[in-house]
Amino acid sequence: MRIARYSLDGQDPSFGIVELAVDEGEHPQTIAAISGDPLAGAVKYTGERHGLDEVRLLAPVIPRSKIVGIGRNYADHARELGNDVPQTPLVFLKPNTSVIGPGDPVIKPVQTNELHYEGELAVVIGRICRQVPRSRVPEVIFGYTVANDVTARDLQRSDGQWTRAKGWDSFCPLGPWIVSHLEPGEAARLHITTTLDGTVRQQGITSQMIHPIDELVSFVSEFTTLLPGDVILTGTPAGVGPMRPGQQVCVEIESIGSLTNPVIDGAADLGFDEAR
């Protein structure tokens, strides 16, 4: 099942089930509206359907609590930046205000000159849990989506920790929807491709993770309670690099979908004083 969050004609966000076309000539891609929040429990079809081209897809989830990132979880990526491979998962946090959806712009802050893309598989948590054994991790996963862990690489180096480098508004694109039907074994062998203006920059497969999905969820749940809608970013393959205003980055994960965002300059972004 592909669960999307969308807006129709500027109305409040709604949830729907995405029905992909088998033959686009006869069966166009549609979204079937549902009532309620899928993360909160049972939902019902409302009977309404819309073409995907008629709605604006939003970030499929806005975490109420936290986004947990995992750094250097692909050996080639760790080495390309001159870092050692971590023996245990390297954890950081991103605020939920960093989340944007498909088509929303990644805003380059004036404070960075090295804005990087990082295509990743994201795990969406479906229930309250803590200290989850690895064998029971599948029970707490709601689904998977595509993420871009946008990073200000120069700030990451200069700050010595990653909060500012990864926490700016717009630094966590998610989408296009949450896929809930993948088995853990399937999620462990998905191809990830990141393109910049159509040119392939990253290619990897989730089986290359140093610490696999079940280990990551279990490890994170040891020190913090996970809540429905929390997101865990599982790390990025090698090939990270700069993206600049005017460019467009697309992260695609097989069996899930593609997430595309333009990059714009934040120099004209209104601050508090100007916006009052």
From TrEMBL:
InterPro entries: Fumarylacetoacetase-like_C, Fumarylacetoacetase_C_sf, Rv2993c-like_N. Residues 66-263 form the Fumarylacetoacetase-like C-terminal domain. The keyword Metal-binding applies. Gene3D superfamilies: FAH (2.30.30.370), Fumarylacetoacetase-like, C-terminal domain (3.90.850.10). Residues 1-60 form the Rv2993c-like N-terminal domain. PANTHER family: ACYLPYRUVASE, ACYLPYRUVASE FAHD1, MITOCHONDRIAL. This is 2-keto-4-pentenoate hydratase/2-oxohepta-3-ene-1,7-dioic acid hydratase (Catechol pathway). The lineage of its organism: Bacteria, Bacillati, Actinomycetota, Actinomycetes, Propionibacteriales.
